[in-house]
Write a structure and sequence with these properties.
Length: 238
């Protein structure tokens, strides 16, 4: 009889444990399944993006008097990093200070090529969803051309798609009454585009020798607008 009661108690105890563990496991599942939903509210959650501010250090890029391309590239690069990070992306910058990257490899005797190879290495090692290389253009002749132009390499179909999405967004910028021209995307024979294994484009954000572009590119608010449109273009692409 005593043994029987204890068996019954043991049976009830086992049932309780089984039910309790079931509740705990289902709660655990709920916690696990709800957590990503909360964090994926950020549209770039889980995405890896390399931002490459062109030039740096000894290599100032294009210039006009004391306005240097390398500085504009870095300023816009930081703004772009901040925005993309806020939207959930893991952002890797090829440089975060006024420095060239040629010391990072010995692949070529040419300093400029070593710098470019280092940027390609950063892209390929991080396996990003995409990369954006930031530059400022210079054009000696007096054509009417101005504004941002997105360059791509057509060895991957995605490159053209990404370029197209970014260019559309950049062409729609209007700042202080200045409208962008309807610039088309261009195929570009650039080292970084030719040698990166992941989708990406090179954005020439404007012409440093054109007065309007120079005025725009040195304005914080315009730089911010550029990054917002690049971000929107990235969302259109993804
Ligand atoms: Zn450049």
């Amino acid at each position: 009889m005593i043994l029987l009661i204890e068996k019954e108690k043991l049976f009830i105890l086992c049932c309780c444990c089984f039910i309790l563990s079931g509740i705990v496991f289902s709660m655990k599942d709920r916690i696990i399944t709800t957590m990503p939903i909360t964090s994926s509210n950020k549209p770039l959650q889980g995405r890896i993006i390399v931002v490459d501010p062109g030039h740096g250090g000894i290599d100032k890029g294009s210039s006009y008097e004391n306005i240097l391309e390398k500085d504009i590239n870095l300023k816009v690069g930081f703004k772009l990093k901040e925005l993309l990070t806020r939207q959930g992306a893991r952002v890797i910058m090829t440089r975060q200070s006024d420095t060239a990257l040629d010391h990072q490899n010995q692949t070529y005797s040419n300093r400029h090529k070593r710098d470019l190879q280092a940027r390609v290495d950063i892209i390929n090692q991080n396996q990003p969803d995409l990369f954006i290389s930031l530059h400022v253009n210079y054009f000696g002749r007096k054509f009417r051309i101005r504004g941002p132009i997105v360059f791509y390499q057509d060895h991957k179909a995605e490159n053209r798609v990404l370029a197209d999405k970014l260019q559309t967004r950049l062409n729609s910028i209007e700042y202080e009454g200045i409208e962008m021209l309807n610039n088309p995307i261009r195929k570009g024979d650039y080292f970084i585009l030719n040698n990166s294994k992941y989708p990406g484009v090179l954005v020439e954000m404007g012409f440093i020798n054109k007065e309007i572009d120079r005025w725009l590119l040195t304005h914080q608010q315009f730089q911010k607008l550029l990054t917002q449109q690049i971000y929107r273009g990235i969302l259109d692409y993804l």
